[in-house]
Design a protein that fits this description.
By secondary structure, this protein is α/β, with parallel strands linked by helices. The protein has helices at about 20-30, 35-45, 50-55, 55-70, 90-100, 110-115, 130-145, 160-170, 200-205, 225-235, 255-265, 280-290, 305-310, 350-365, 370-375, 380-385, 385-405, 425-430, 440-455, 460-475, 495-500, 530-540; strands spanning about 10, 30-35, 75-80, 100-105, 150-155, 180, 190-195, 215-220, 240-245, 275-280, 300-305, 315-320, 325-330, 335-340, 515-520, 520-525. A seven-stranded mixed β-sheet has the order 6-7-14-11-10-8-9, sandwiched between helices.
Length: about 550
C-alpha cells in the first residue's frame, strides 16, 4: 500500500505534545523519530535556556534552520519541530514544500496547565502573568501554525489517540498530495488536492471519520467517477448512488424533493454521509439536501470541475434556484471533507477549464500576489493541465478561500465580500446575455471592469489593471466581451446597469464593489459610485 514516505512534521506551541505524539506516530509507522530541539541541544552541548542566554535567539534560529534543511532530505522520518520553527518564513516554505505537516492545536487553558511551573522555556521566563504570555505568544504564532496542511484539534486526547488520527491520513495520502484545513474549530474540515484520490476514497473517508451508510449523488456527465466512489465506499459499509441531470436546471426544488425521498427510502440515518460528485450544480444541490434532511447530515464534496475545486466546493454555501433568481433558497452548511482529484480535470472541455481559471486569478489579485506571479510565469503548463501546476494553483486557491471562510463564515463581518471581486459586473453580464457566457468568462471581464473602476476612483495604480489583464490573456481568458471564444450579442449599457441594481450583495439600494488597492489588498465600497463611472467601466469592456 502506497502512503506518505516524505518527512512528516509535527508543529505546535511548546507543551502541545509534539514529542510524545511524534514518538507514538513514528513507532506505529516504523519510521525514524527526531526532536529538533533535542538535536540542537546536542550540537551546542547545552540546554536551550543556556543557548538563548549565551548565544542569543538569532544563533538558535540559525542552527534550527540549518538542521531543518538536513532533516528534510530524509525519507520515512517524523520530526517534532521547535515551537518557533514554522514562524521563520524560510522554514515555513521549506516545510510546506517538502513535508506533510500537522499542527497540534491545544487550548490555552491546557497549555497553561502544562507550562505553569516549567523552568526550561526561555520565552516564558520573566513574565509575571504566564497565562497572558502563553496566550499572546500563541496568538502571534497561530497564523503560521495554521498553514500546516492539517490542523489537529487535540483538546485533552492522549498522544496515542492523536497519533492514530494522524496515522490514518498518512496511510490515505501519497507524497504528491496536498491539503488545506478550513479552520472552523470543532467544525473544521480538510480540502485534499492530488491525483488518483478517488481510487483511495475509502481510506480518505476513514481518515476523515465519515460514517456509513453512504449516499453518492453524481452529475450524469461524470457517471464513471460516481460509480468508482460508490464502489470504493461500499468496502466500508452500505453505499448507494443516484445521478442528476447536468446543468443549472437541476438546482430546483423538485430535484431536492426527489433526493429527500431517496434518502428516506434508503433509511439514511443522521450519522450517515452524502457525497456530491460533480461540478458546482451538484455540490450546491447536494449540500442543500444535506443541510435540510433530518435537520442536517454530513456530506463530502468531490468536485470534478476546476471552478468547483477552487470555489463552490469550499465554504458551505448551498442552494437551489427559484424562477425569480439563482440561489435564492439555501443554507450555510459546511462539508465534512473536500476531495479534489486532478484526474477528473483531464476530460473537461477546454472552454470550461479555462473559464475556471478566472477564479484562480481572482484569488491572486485579492490576496495572493505570489499566486498571481505563478499564473503569469506558468501559464503554458497550466493550460496543458500539468498535474504539478494544477495542484499548486488549486491548493493555493483553496488556502485563500479557506482563510476568508474561517474569518467570516456567514458573511457577517463583510470580509467574505472580497470574494465577490469581479462578480458584480460579471453576474450582470451573465444575466444580460441570457447566460451564454460561462461564469468564469463573465468574472474575467467583470474583474477587468472593476479594476478599471478602482483605477478611475484612485484606489489603485493603472499597473494593477494592466498586469491583471496580462495574466488573464496569458491564460486565454477574455478581458473584453469581443474576446470571448464563442461570440455573444452585446447588451446595452442601460440594461447592464439596471441588472446590476438587483445584485444580491447590495446593501439596501447601494450596490457595493470589492475593488483592489494593490495586489493582495482589496476593500469594499460603502458609497454610491457615480453613474458615469459605471457606464465608463462597462464601455471599457464592451468595446
Amino acid at each position: 500500500m502506497l502512503m506518505v514516505t516524505k518527512p512528516i512534521a509535527i508543529w505546535g506551541f511548546m507543551g502541545s505534545g509534539k514529542t510524545s505524539v511524534g514518538k507514538a506516530l513514528a513507532q506505529k509507522l516504523g519510521y525514524e523519530f527526531v526532536d529538533s530541539d533535542e538535536l540542537i541541544m546536542q550540537r551546542f552541548g547545552k540546554p536551550i535556556t543556556q543557548i538563548f542566554a549565551e548565544e542569543g535567539e538569532a544563533a538558535f534560529r540559525k542552527a534550527e534552520s540549518e538542521l531543518l534543511t538536513e532533516l528534510l532530505q530524509r525519507q520515512r522520518i517524523v520530526i517534532a519541530t521547535g515551537g518557533g520553527m514554522p514562524t521563520v518564513p524560510e522554514n515555513l516554505a521549506a516545510l510546506r514544500t517538502k513535508a506533510l505537516n500537522f499542527y497540534l492545536r491545544v487550548p490555552t487553558d491546557v497549555l497553561y496547565e502544562r507550562l505553569a511551573t516549567v523552568r526550561d522555556r526561555p520565552l516564558l521566563e520573566g513574565f509575571a502573568d504566564r497565562y497572558w504570555r502563553i496566550a499572546t505568544l500563541l496568538s502571534q504564532r497561530e497564523r503560521f501554525y495554521t498553514q500546516a496542511q492539517f490542523t489537529v484539534n487535540c483538546g485533552r486526547q492522549t498522544p496515542d489517540q492523536i497519533a492514530e488520527r494522524i496515522l490514518a491520513w498518512v496511510r490515505a495520502l501519497e507524497n504528491d498530495d496536498d491539503a488545506v484545513t478550513v479552520d472552523l474549530q470543532e467544525r473544521s474540515y480538510h480540502v485534499l488536492v492530488g491525483s488518483d484520490l478517488l481510487s483511495r476514497i475509502e481510506r480518505i473517508a476513514e481518515a476523515g471519520n465519515l460514517q456509513p451508510p453512504f449516499a453518492v449523488v453524481h452529475d450524469e456527465s461524470v457517471e464513471s467517477s460516481g460509480k468508482l466512489v460508490c464502489e470504493r465506499l461500499s468496502r466500508l459499509g452500505k453505499s448507494e448512488r443516484k445521478s442528476v441531470p447536468s446543468g443549472e436546471a437541476s438546482k430546483n426544488i423538485n430535484q431536492a424533493i426527489s433526493l429527500w425521498h431517496w434518502l428516506a427510502e434508503m433509511a439514511m440515518p443522521r450519522n450517515g454521509t452524502l457525497f456530491a460528485v460533480g461540478g458546482g450544480v451538484v455540490g450546491d444541490l447536494v449540500g442543500f439536501v444535506a443541510a435540510t434532511y433530518m435537520r442536517g447530515i454530513a456530506y463530502a464534496q468531490i468536485p470534478t470541475t476546476l471552478l468547483a475545486m477552487v470555489d463552490s466546493a469550499i465554504g458551505g454555501k448551498t442552494a437551489i434556484d427559484l424562477p425569480h433568481a439563482k440561489n435564492l433558497v439555501g443554507a450555510f452548511h459546511q462539508p465534512s471533507l473536500v476531495v479534489s482529484d486532478l484526474i477528473t480535470l483531464k476530460t473537461m472541455p477546454d472552454r470550461a477549464f479555462i473559464a475556471g481559471l478566472a477564479e484562480v486569478v481572482k484569488y491572486g489579485v485579492i490576496a495572493d500576489p505570489v499566486l498571481l506571479r505563478y499564473l503569469r510565469d506558468n501559464a503554458d503548463l497550466i493550460l496543458r493541465r500539468h498535474p504539478l501546476a494544477l495542484r499548486a494553483i488549486i491548493a493555493r486557491s483553496a488556502s485563500v478561500k479557506a482563510s476568508v471562510v474561517s474569518l467570516d463564515e456567514r458573511e457577517q463581518t463583510g470580509l467574505r465580500m472580497i470574494l465577490n471581486y469581479g462578480h458584480t459586473f460579471g453576474h450582470a453580464l451573465e444575466a444580460a446575455t441570457n447566460f451564454q457566457l460561462l461564469h468564469g468568462e463573465a468574472v474575467a471581464i467583470g474583474m477587468t471592469a472593476e479594476a478599471y473602476l478602482a483605477w478611475r476612483l484612485g484606489w489603485c495604480d493603472r499597473e494593477v489593471l494592466d498586469e491583471q489583464s496580462e495574466v488573464l490573456r496569458a491564460l486565454e481568458l477574455p478581458t473584453k466581451l469581443k474576446e470571448v471564444s464563442e461570440p455573444v450579442p452585446e447588451p446595452d449599457i442601460a440594461t447592464l446597469t439596471e441588472t446590476m441594481q438587483r445584485d444580491k450583495k447590495r446593501k439596501g439600494s447601494l450596490v457595493r464593489f470589492a475593488l483592489p488597492k494593490r495586489f493582495g489588498e482589496t476593500a469594499v465600497t460603502d458609497f454610491p459610485i457615480p453613474d458615469d463611472l459605471i457606464a465608463d467601466a462597462w464601455a471599457f469592456v464592451l468595446r
